[in-house]
Structure formats: C-alpha cells, structure tokens
Design goal:
The structure is a single chain. The protein has about 575 residues and is of the alpha/beta class. It contains 11 helices and 17 strands. The chain has helices spanning about 40-45, 60-70, 105-110, 175-200, 205-230, 250-270, 300-320, 375-380, 405-415, 430-435, 520-535; strands at about 15-20, 50-55, 115-120, 150-155, 240, 245, 275-280, 330-335, 350-355, 360-365, 380-385, 395-400, 400-405, 445-450, 455-460, 460-470, 490-500. The strands form 3 sheets. Strands 1, 2, 3, 4, 5, 6, 7, 8, 11, 12 and 13 form an 11-stranded mixed beta sheet that branches. The longest helix has 25 residues, at about 175-200. The radius of gyration is 24 Å and the shape is globular.
Amino acid sequence: NNDNNDNNKDINNPNIVILLADDLGYGDLGCYGNKEFRTPNIDKFANEGLKFEQMISGDSICTPSRTSLLTGRYAIRSGLSSSDKTRRTLFSTSQPGGLPQNELTIAELLKQKNYKTGFFGKWHLGINQGFSPFNREIGIHLPTRQGFDEYYGMPLTNIQTCADKTTFKPDKYYYQFFWRRTSYIWTPIICLIFVLKLFRFISMKSILILNFSIFMIAFTIYVFTGYFSVISKSNCILYRNETLIEQPVDLDTIEIRMLNEAKQFLYKNQNHSFFLFFSFIRVHTALFNSPNWNRNNATSDFAANVEEMDWAFGELINTIDQLSLKNNTIIFFSSDNGPFLEELNEAGSTGFVQKFNRSTNSFDQFPLKGGKGQNWEGGIRVPALVRWSNIIPANSTTNALVSHLDLFATIATLTNQTINDRIIDGFNILPLLLQPQKQTTPRDYLFHYCGETVSAMRNSKYKIHYFTPKWDPGVNHCGLSDTICHCYIDDVNFHNPPLLFDLENDPSEQYPLNTIEYKHIIDEFQIALKNHSDKVVHVESQLDSWPQPWLHPCCNPPFCNCKE
C-alpha cells in the first residue's frame, strides 16, 4: 500500500477517482462560462487542477461513450454500437447483451495491482444474457463482473418514466404514441380487409378471425413494448452488487444514497489503493431534486439539478480531502456526452468556445453546434477537469486534443502496466497532465462513430463530416418524436464531397472550407480512415436484440415492486 499522507509525491499507483456526469453540456458550469448556474464546488476544483478545452467523449451517446471510457477502445470493437437505426444504446433491462467479458476495463486493470474498486451510479452497459429461459446468464454484464468489488446504482438509466413523466414526446399517453408509431402497419391491413369484404372475396367468419388475430398481435406488441422497454417504470431499478433491491427506484433519494455509499467506500479503503467510479444520475432527464434540497432561487429545474449535482460533487471531494488523501489521489471529472437538446427546457447548454481576437483585444465567443447523439462539437466536446495536488499544476488549462479514450492508457502508465493483447485506441496523456503548457496532443486523428459508421473525424486543426443528422426546421436538434438523432439513410444528410472545417478558427463549424482547395487535407483524412477501418474487426452487436421477458429483473414476483 502507498503512503497516503499529504507529503507523498510519488506518481506511481495513486488512488484514482472518476466522476462522470450524465448529459452535462460544455456550457453548463461556471468554470466553462455559465453565468446562470451556481457551481462553486466544481469551479473551485477547476482552480485546483487542469481544465481541458478540447476533451472529446468516446461517443455522442451513453452506452458507447461509457464503453470507450472504461476500455480505452472505440465501442464498435466491443459490439456496443449498432447498425439498427433506432438502437444506439441499451434500451431495456430485459435486453440481452452488454459489455463483453473479454473486454478489459480500467477496474480489471487496477485489480491486477491489488486496488479496491467500487462503482456507484448509472452503469448502462448491460445486466443479463440469454435468448432462452433455459439458458440464462444472470448478472453477467454488471460492474461486479467487470472488475468492480462493489456496485450500488442503476444498471440502465434515469428516464422520464422514473418520475412519472412521458418518455414518448410529443404524445401525452402511451396509446397515442403506440398508434402513431405503428399505424402504418395496421391501417393498410384494415383497409385491405374492408376491400375484401366489400367485394365479397372473404366471408364474415374469416373477417372475424382476421380481426381477432390482428387485435391479439397488436395487443401483445402493445403490452410487450409498454412493459419491457424504457417506457415502463419497471426498468427504473436499483442494484446492490448483483441483487435487485428496489423497483421502481425512489428517484428523489437515489443520489443521496449513492453518495453515502461512495463515502463509505472511501472510509473503508482510505488505507488501501482504491479506484472509485461515481457515475451521477444527473443531469439526464427526468430531472429531480432531493426532498430537503433548497433550490435557493435556482432559475429553472435544470439549474436546480446542476446545482445539487455540484453539491454532491463537493461532498465527495471534501471527504477525500478530510481523509488526507488529497495528494495521493488523481480525480477526473467529465460528462459522458453533450446535452440532450430534444428535452428542450430540461436540457443543458453546449456553451461556447472563447478565442482571443488580437485586432479587438478581446475574446470572441463561438457557440458549439449540435448536442447529444450528434457528432457536431456540441455533442462530443465535454467539460473535463483533473486534479492531483502538487503533481498537476493548479489553475492550468490545455487546448490539446484529448479524449475519454485516453484515460485507460494513462492509468495503465500510472500503474506501470503494458497492454499488448488488444488494440488500445487511447493514448497516454500523463506528460500533458504534468506539463500542460509544454505538451500537445499525442494523437493524429480521432474517429467519431454514429452507430457502426464513422460519420466524422478530426485532427488538431481540421474536422471532416461525411454525414450529419437532419434537424427539425429552426432548431439544432432532431425531431421530438425521434427522441434522439439516428444514424442511417433517411435520418441523415450525406455530404459528397464531405464537409471540412477549420476548428482552430471556426469551432462553431459554420463555414465549410473549399473542398477543391483543401483536397489534399481530405485525401489525408481518407487514408487515415482506411487505415483505421482496416484494423476494426467486426464483432456481434450487443445492441440489436429485442428484450427477452425471462431476463426482466423483478423483485417480489409477480408484482415487481420493492423498496430498499
């Protein structure tokens, strides 16, 4: 065990803490220019460490983004990206699939160095496996099977249903949503039956049988979707290790309980090297506040959620400091992707990038385009801070191009481990952390996937888009009825030649460069894309399967209702 007192400056085998917000935008924190939300704890933390101006998430949406962070690999290598236009994440607790056992996570990496490991909060990387009730693998994808000694949290995600709100905008009721999404199936069938009867091609008995059959099929789909998909509140569940302890989850108290569990983990392991991953439920919708939380004139429900998250963040940091672990603990804070703009007033902000204008001797502001589910900068450029007292320079900033993918390789270096049995897409950024003013990005290119396809890629200066999502008129997000932007065919605009932007001078991605003049840059990107694609081995998708009723977690059957 390492000496954990405040005089220790050894950079080998430090305690490691990752704090990950959910759907927090680049512009949602005071230290990133937000003047509306009060985030004093996170802002203080920023002043004590390093702020990243170009931290790029591994993907623009939950499941593949979290996969990339934990494994240091693009999610397509794990099968956690999808060719199905409607399934970009795991969407049901009954869905077979998740992070494969043959992947190596940060937690498993650190277990090889005898770290104590704990995961608290949103997982969203799968629960069970099995396409038959007689061949099930229960809990195989939970954190406890991926290197974590302890787990307390929600294995799927917080959704509007968890707070008794609708998840199927713009409809108010599920039957409206069901009819709108399936009427294209039933309407022609009903019309066909009517025509057959009108011209006496079919008997009344046959019509009755057909109508009954259609009704039963529709009713089965209606019930199945309403109970086993994210529409159902029974998917809002809480686990301790591999045991279901609450269904549906009490959303109002969940983050307080998660916080207390994480604190207990710190107390227990203060004299042992540890890895703590705290994955906030916030600020993904449904928005919620703890019963005793004083909104203190918060300007909106979203502001109140950001501010309570900041308080919880402060509680964790204070606990670490009070246990005299400050100098031997590296703490990383970020968000899994950009803000969920389709949630309108319950969503965050992509914010802006500031650049100094020498001609006016002032800073110009460049708003970021797009949001969650999109590979415009607003969907993948995320707030990110790191603190390691007396090791990483305080009050420092870097504009180097880095990614969540880099955490794995950096932690491997910190713990003197080398990975030779698989491709690691991230890079060791420890030199950048130690000397942020002297170091640049270690990478040549970043690849931005939408589903199983690279829709965009970039280097330190340029970014290229091969296709972009179709937006509703007048907004920078997709249609409310789609929930999130899709990746294929009718839902995207293809660009041939591709769109090319100079992000150094146009971080808003507003002014495409002349593709003839910059053909040599596009050609370089094409070569890099081919080299990357040639090294991507196709694996079976973990996201394309439908929910299986025999995998549905249920406490107190058949009621599926219990409290911790």
